[in-house]
Specification:
The protein has 437 residues and is an alpha/beta fold. The chain has helices at 4-10, 21-31, 179-187, 226-236, 251-264, 279-289, 331-349, 403-408; strands spanning 19-20, 38-42, 55-56, 66-67, 71-74, 83-85, 88-100, 114-118, 130-133, 137-140, 143-147, 157-158, 169-171, 192-196, 200-206, 210-211, 222-223, 240-247, 267-271, 290-300, 304-311, 321-327, 360-364, 375-384, 390-394, 411-415, 427-432. Strands 5, 6, 7, 8, 9, 10 and 11 form a 7-stranded mixed sheet that branches. Strands 23-25-24-26-27 form a 5-stranded mixed β-barrel. A two-stranded antiparallel ribbon has the order 2-14. It is elongated and about 95 Å long. 38% of the residues are buried. The protein binds adenosine monophosphate and magnesium ion (MG). Belongs to the MoeA family. Its EC number is 2.10.1.1.
């Protein structure tokens, strides 16, 4: 068996005491194998699912040449026959032979010297290849006139198959289906699509101090927020989220939870119990029923992280396997490690090919202290000024326990591994939380 420890050593920069974020991401990437089974779902249910097969267009879209404007369709050969108009522009005069509306084509063929009144989306009448927009024309009775120089042959005609050609893949397998894709498949007249099965992700919190909502809060206790944050983050990825509740800091309870999680899920996420001092019994347990490395990531927040494989059986390799991420306990660290380390793995496991989250350059409004040798993800509020320049200000407290900093923020300020202290006005990378579609 390839063990995680063997594999980790093959990665450049491997240092279990301070593993660079990029190195951790590279290791995780190698272990994130996609689910393979697929199912057919009605088109609308395919939103935020991953296509299991290419969608080949059964038709041309648009199906016919049609007009891009409201105006008059005619044969561009007529442009050469326009009559000079004194010193002014050459004018073309055409008789209106009929009309073509969207859904109501013109049946005949436009004879020489005629045109067809046409509305946007209506099929181009036989014998016509050009549309003059109505705002360029003068209409008197049944005659339309316009400056011949104002239109080029073929203008304002959309070609059949211009959007999608019959027989060509319209969307590729691995596509994460977004709103435009749902509409695009609908435009092909396809009612059902084949998608990969949803990824199953089980999650639980650990800690004797944790109380669930509805329970009284004894001295020294805190409400378990991580499980709810994890649920919400998983929901956004449209995976099947399996909530396993709170597990006490006790080896028997932890073993039972981890084994049943591995039996039922592709990925298991825990929070808490991986920091120095707390990790000992977790580590011992996972040495038996898993192949899990305990990392100190060169990252802030989110230093302690356990990553590897676990099995549902009594020993590593027995029973159903699952990928395991032991996230830190601090609420902000949970979110940062989820977005920077876990998210990409989950997306890869859904079978999707998704581009990396774009970074945007911004001027930092204040000086920031930063030690080289770790990547920091501060919480920031970014805004774009009238000149198109982005500016970012860190939210108040950057404590990894202060969830309010995540709630207020609209971006991560990404301070690169090698970066040192920054002065006000220096350029930083930001990762905006919200994308449009
Ligand atoms: P740990 O990593 O278990 O030592 O936890 C680090 C800090 O995060 C401690 O202050 C915990 O009380 C807090 N914490 C751990 N788990 C949770 C949770 N599920 N919800 C809120 N806070 C938590
Ligand atoms: Mg704990």
């Amino acid at each position: 068996m390839t063990t995680l420890n063997n594999l980790s050593r093959c990665v450049a920069d491997y240092d279990p005491e301070a593993l660079p974020v990029a190195a951790a991401q590279a290791i995780v990437r190698q272990w994130a194998t996609p689910v393979t089974s697929a199912e057919h779902v009605p088109l609308r249910d395919a939103l935020d699912r991953v296509l299991a097969a290419d969608i080949v267009s059964p038709i041309d879209v648009p199906a016919h040449d049609n007009s891009a404007m409201d105006g008059y369709a005619f044969d561009s050969a007529a442009l050469g026959t326009s009559t000079p108009n004194g010193d002014g522009p050459r004018t073309l005069e055409l008789k209106i032979a009929g009309k073509a509306l969207a859904g109501h084509p013109f049946d005949g063929k436009a004879a020489r010297g005629t045109c067809v009144r046409i509305m946007t989306g209506a099929p181009m009448p036989a014998g016509c290849d050009t549309v003059v927009p109505q705002e360029l024309t003068k209409v008197e009775g049944e005659t339309v006139s316009f400056a011949a120089d104002a239109v080029r042959p073929g203008a304002n005609r959309r070609r059949a198959g211009e959007d999608l050609a019959a027989g060509q893949p319209a969307l590729r397998a691995g596509r994460w289906m977004r709103a435009a894709d749902i509409g695009l498949v609908a435009s092909l007249g396809i009612a059902e699509v084949s998608v990969r099965r949803r990824l199953r992700v089980a999650f639980f919190s650990t800690g004797d101090e944790l109380r669930s909502i509805g329970e009284p809060l004894a001295t020294g206790c805190v409400y378990d927020s991580n499980r709810h944050t994890l649920f919400a983050m998983l929901r956004r990825l449209n995976v099947e989220a399996i909530d396993l509740g709170v597990v006490r800091d006790e080896p028997g309870a932890l073993e039972a939870t981890i084994r049943s999680a591995a039996a039922n899920a592709d990925v298991v996420l825990s929070s808490g119990g991986v920091s120095v001092g707390e990790a000992d019994f977790t580590r011992k347990l996972l040495d038996t029923i898993g192949d899990v490395a305990f990392w100190n990531l060169a990252m802030r927040p989110g230093r302690p992280l356990a990553f590897g494989r676990i099995w549902s059986g009594a020993r590593a390799g027995d029973g159903h396997p699952a990928l395991f991420f032991g996230l830190p306990g601090n609420p902000v660290a949970v979110m940062v490690t989820f977005y920077q380390i876990v998210r990409e793995a989950l997306i890869a496991m859904t079978g999707a090919s998704v581009d990396p989250v774009p970074l945007v350059g911004a001027a930092c409004a204040v000086a920031i202290r930063k030690r080289p040798g770790r990547t920091e993800f501060q919480r920031g509020i970014a805004r774009r000024d009238a000149h198109g320049q982005w500016h970012v200000t860190p939210t108040g407290s950057q404590s990894s326990a202060a969830l309010s900093s995540m709630s207020e923020a609209n971006c991560f300020i990404v301070l690169a591994h090698d970066a040192a202290d920054l002065d006000a006005g220096d350029n930083v990378d930001i990762m905006l939380f919200d994308a449009l579609v």
